[in-house]
User: Fold this.
Amino acid sequence: MKRIQLINPFNKQELTEAADGLYDESGLVFPLRNGAYRIAGDENYAGSFGFQWNRFAGTQVDKTSKLNMSRQRFFAETGWDKQDLAGKNVLEAGSGAGRFTQIILDETNANLYSVDYSNAVEANYRNNGPNNRLHLFQASIYEMPFAKAQFDKVLCLGVLQHTPDFEKSVKCLVDMAKPGAEVVVDFYSINGWWTKLSAKYLLRPFTKKMPHEKLYRKIDQNIDWLIKASRFFTAIGIGKLANRFLPICDIEGTLPKNLSPSQLRELCVLDTFDMFSPEHDHPQKISTVVKWFEQYGMQNVWGGKIKYQNGVASVVKGIKK
Assistant:
């Protein structure tokens, strides 16, 4: 397996690994702390995700939750073969608490380079480290510490809509793939003029400015009656319309069936916080993302909806020229 060349994204000097961090010619530049190399600090637009995933570290991780949510989604969206990943260098951009990190490490023999801009890397390491096939970095998608065109597979799930510049983020991912490598992304899609006509987008201008702990408490205090209201509207046949304007996640469309009351409550608090807290939320048309893939050097590009056990994802994938 060819080792990935690490570079300082700010001065392009080569980085070498040591027990305490990464060094370039000037000396120690990026410390190793709690299992992750820290290319970025904690104060950035992804701060809500650090709060979220350190509080809900195991909620979406299959080996903890026993719900099999992440495995189903990972293999449905990527279509990747476990055996084919053996010995491959995989880049995972935006890993959160490591729900897909766990699937890659436990079910394949891939060498995984996992990046997140928030301190959710600490939750990821608690869930999946130490592991000699896991290389964990706190870094921006725009300033990843890797030389270009090295990875056999590039994966970015649940992330792109939360970056400041969706198109630039796509380019950065494509840049990391070597010729013949596959890039797979999913994202929130624009389905029509009504996409942003919902409680989520009507309230986000206010909720994204709230302190994370305050928003979390507000959701936790109200989630029980919101679940009951959502279930009631669904039972009387007006759920698709009425629930758009209820400030709670899409229970019927995104969560597993037959959850225990405690599991349902925890997932609803998590997913509702995930709706209202991020600084950025920029859904895109699938056709637009397909165009960007092609513009930045991808071929055999496919874009569309993929169904899996707990929902439907908007996915674009292609092969680097």
The chain has a mean pLDDT of 97.
